[in-house]
Amino acid sequence: MPPRSFPLAKHVVMHTTDADYARNRLKSVYGVTSFDAPLKGKGFDVRASHLQAGEVGLSYCDYASEMALTFGERSFVRQIFNISGSATYSNGADGEIAEGNYSRVLQSGVPVKLECSSNYRQFVLRIEQAALQRHLGAMVGEEITSELVFHDSTREHAMRRLQRLVFQFASDFDDLAESLSPLAAAEIARGLIANFLICHEHNYSHLLFRAPPASHLSTTKRVEEFVEANWDKPIDIEQLSAVARVSVRTLFRQFKNDRGHSPAEFVRRVRLDRARNLLEAGVEGTSVTQVALKCGFQNQGHFAREFRLTFGELPSETLRRALRGRG
Fold it and tell me: By C-alpha distance, which of 78, 128, 136 is closest to 104?
């Protein structure tokens, strides 16, 4: 019988009933420094997968029997999202994770101890501390000179939103692994970092929620010119903020005021325009999938829908008409 599928199954680390093999894989992939579990033949079964998208990592782990693990000091923060079962953890302070719940942010540079029940499943989100501070600086429009420190307090509605985004992140990479372009993968990861910073309380939260200063129309034009020249390359909001020489929040506000839409919506429209140009060129061998991926659209269904909403016909119809015209 083939093994049962599990989240991030296209990024498998292991599926084993061998405790020694599991110990070695957990050490090499996850930096586990101690591992206590039943021996083979006593219900031992571990399944794990790990996706790394730039400075964002997402792991899935599934333990059939009780486990106790210690993870070494690393350069990234972690957050555990429980799927089923229960666990306790320690990362300078102790905590519990009930089924369907989540841990606090586990700080970088400090070991993490995890003790979990049998039939325990979880996602673990990992984001590099340096990436968080860099993205935060772009979002607030000033350099982050002191360490970013996350508070234990949480806003339940914000955390549930982040939890849904993490699960969607896993689903997107499961469904689209083969067709996901580097451009699209990078933008999905960057979006998750931004939401992580917004949803958690930390020592810079007050800067994220203050009223942004007004900017000038030239801000919008500088960004538009940059996007027009770089539509086929990865474009993130930090780049656009640097081009505009304002914070991310100010940039969003200025675009809304000047154009009635966000910078991301402008990027999407430019890429749709370029996609139509490529399809209308009617070059022999051109396919809708190739054009979609070149223009940063990882989901063919979404691309077709957005294209039809914008131009009134499916991209396949545009390409067919162009090819007929050449014949």
Answer: 78
**281 contacts: CB under 8 Å, gap ≥ 6:** 322
| Residues 252-276 as b or e (16 or more Cβ within 10 Å = b) | bbbbeeeeeeebbebbbebbbebbb
Tokens representing 190 are 């960057």
pTM metric for this prediction? 0.68
The pLDDT value given to residue 110? 92
Categorise residue 142: left if φ over 0, alpha if ψ from -120 to 50, beta otherwise: beta
3-state DSSP assignment of residue 131: helix
**Residues in CB range of 49: below 8 A, 6 or more apart:** 6, 7, 8, 9, 10, 11, 12, 13, 59, 60
Q: What are phi and psi of 245, to 5 degrees?
A: 65, 35
Q: Distance between CA 60 and CA 68 in Å, rounded? A: 16
Residue 165: what residue type? L
Secondary structure letter of residue 209 according to DSSP: T
Domains and CATH numbers, the chain: 9-176 (2.60.120.10), 266-326 (1.10.10.60)
State the pLDDT at residue 171.
83
Q: What is the pLDDT of residue 212?
A: 54
* CB neighbourhood size of 277 (10 A): 11
C-alpha distances out from residue 92 to 114, 159, 176, 220, Å: 12, 22, 38, 45
Helix (H) or strand (E) holding 81: strand 76-84
